[in-house]
Amino acid sequence: MKIGFIHNQRIDIHGGEEYQIQDLIRTAPSTVKAIPCMPGQMDKACDGYIVCGMAAGAQDADYRWLLEESKVPYVRRPHAWDSLVDKAFLRRVDEGAQRVLFKSPAHESIYQQMYGYELKNTQTIVPFVDVSALKRVVAPVERIGGLMWAGTYSPHKGTDLVLHWARREGFSVDYFGIGLTESGRGKWHTYKGQLGSREDAWKVMGSYSDLVFMPRAPEPFGIVLVEAWAAGAGIITNGRIGLKSYDKPIDEIVDMCEIGSASFWGAVEGAIE
Q1: Looking at residue 84, what is its pLDDT?
Q2: Looking at residue 57, what is its pLDDT?
């Protein structure tokens, strides 16, 4: 079975989501040939498709071909909230999917509240985390302690909220992030800049005592928390995290993420076959 991944995610902009797509393609079962379909690279000879996060204008022609010309089945995998897309068009894409795969119960409920329509063809599947690879990377790392923040540097991710928290609690936090162009340090923070790769991020997580993550906007899942916990760091967070809506211990969620690829591909094959 040949499956096309329709997405426009780039590591230098989106980080975690692009790594997720790469990991799912890499770990596809032997029965599936997964094909990346970036803007301008649509493979129209697939047996089915996975429509990932949608951005206005980026791949409209591909989406319309899928809806209006192709009879090929597809699965939807929303990135976060897809807020830049025309809502009526988004609804057509969602309702036309054989299945819509959300990352958490909170992701599903907030998404449907935001757009004002209820989807019947949904399923929640945790993101895949290659925990074994992470632990191999982290194993030789010396833990130096301290607090860190990591992610895409933006108000949506609550970077300023972490700074307010640090000031209130009397801690200093080291910042690592995509888009982090500021430099310097203050009493409550040190800007460390961008990390070169995901493996670099894992090593850093393995060297700190705790990761602090307090997003302003609701987080569909919060994969950085799973990575930090698997790396042996504690997590300090607020209540706007999708993984909390599973109402399970973090150790159990980490175990679920470790088999997340098999769960994802099982759902895709079941929906498209």
Answers
A1: 59
A2: 60
